């Protein structure tokens, strides 16, 4: 392609910058029975932490432990009575600073599932309803009783304006909001009450936020607890049959994501009764069964904490049963915040389902840029490294179709995945076509690598990225999400070591991060690292970017590692971004000599 055409193409690409709008969406895909976050399939693995049961100085510790266990969201109740001790008197300070708790979760990269009630149950005093409601002795709680609704609306008009700017669609981290709580278990069964709440939540939160209900996984409980316009979810513990329980949800929601909003990791204690104890193995197995189904799960409780002061509630089953001060719940994180055997069992399960590409929230914290056609690095002000281009197949492609790029428009290498399965590599001066097949809506990703801008010999600017439009059987692919990747920043901040649970990993085809640690033998000398059987990628040790490796291409087979970046007497963190395919049992070798030339003597170290 001559320069003018390339120039024109470039101009066209540049002209399209106005189309670049930030995409922040969290919706239900009723076709593919999943959530979509920014247009991409998304599944949450969440845990309940109640800020009202944890002193504020410990919030960061508890949320970080939840994050490091591999969860990507935290479910949060808002107890009305904790914030409105007297009618019209509000307290959001100190341990009651719910905004600070939500913002801390956001800072730690956690999404939030918010449950503002107004009734929350939770073994909390009066289920979160303020005791002063009972000054009107004949009030009918959780109904369309005008006195009750007046107090509810006044409270929601104070609380929900604090929530709205933190909604995911507004740049925050709250992905969904629950209306009421297990209303199907309440005798009143007043659908006008739920309808009123729906109206108030929509008026104060806007049309985009995902609103849902939660009820026990029994059809009779779902009958009164659900409402058109509120996505119905269920709750059940490890002693339930997963298929039957989600079958109850499907009775109300035949399509949409499976959601267990309260997967009981333990249970509450009553005065006079035994401390609850639920087997870690049973809890982990139930979690694995649900994740295998692709379900979204919130573990109730991940961390229970304590019913300080007079905040413990009570159950009534023909007999008054007050709940204890400890809300340990036999949860994965103990009342005092200590990890338990159950936490490690859960972390192991999650690590088997952790999806590295879900870490786009970390690697691309500003979120994707939405554009009709691909944008180049320079348009989005990305200098070096990698960008991820994502779109969906526009139609079923049941027979292999040709995915193609204009010649020389791949600057410089594009690693193609369909539904996260590696399809092959598009190259600047090489292969520009691949054969793919899939279903409408399948996610097509192109991880685009900048291999370095021309330093001599060209009379044009060496722009980077997808400089042209990809097509499928000659029909242009549109509606792209573009993620500039800040990999170095994430690694320097401790990702993925702090985030991804350690698990024995087997090599896979296509782009993937591999992490590990190693000890030096008491010295920190210069060394050379070799990649037996690896293909091409990038290497970091202790946050230092050592550069590109490409033993598949050669000639060099090792990377130089300066001794100055190594640590003695403590683990060294190593992160590998392999782009085309790691060996089945990935390992690295440290040598005291460089290998500058690709050898073909098939020595054991060269074994693929
Ligand atoms: C014996 C408790 C019966 C009601 N509560 C139930 S089932 N639960 C569901 C309820 O939504 C939650 O807030 C918690 O109260 C949980 C028990 O920890």
Automatic annotation (TrEMBL):
Domain Glycoside hydrolase 35 catalytic: 35-352
Domain spans labelled Beta-galactosidase 1-like first all-beta: 374-485
Listed SUPFAM superfamilies: (Trans)glycosidases, Galactose-binding domain-like
Keyword Transferase: no
Keyword Signal: yes
Single Gene Ontology MF annotation: beta-galactosidase activity
Listed Pfam families: BetaGal_ABD_1 (PF21317), BetaGal_gal-bd (PF21467), Glyco_hydro_35 (PF01301)
Domain of life of the native organism: Eukaryota
The Beta-galactosidase galactose-binding domain, residue ranges: 511-569
Family, similarity comment: Belongs to the glycosyl hydrolase 35 family.
Protein name (database record): Galactosidase beta 1 like
Source organism of the structure: Phasianus colchicus
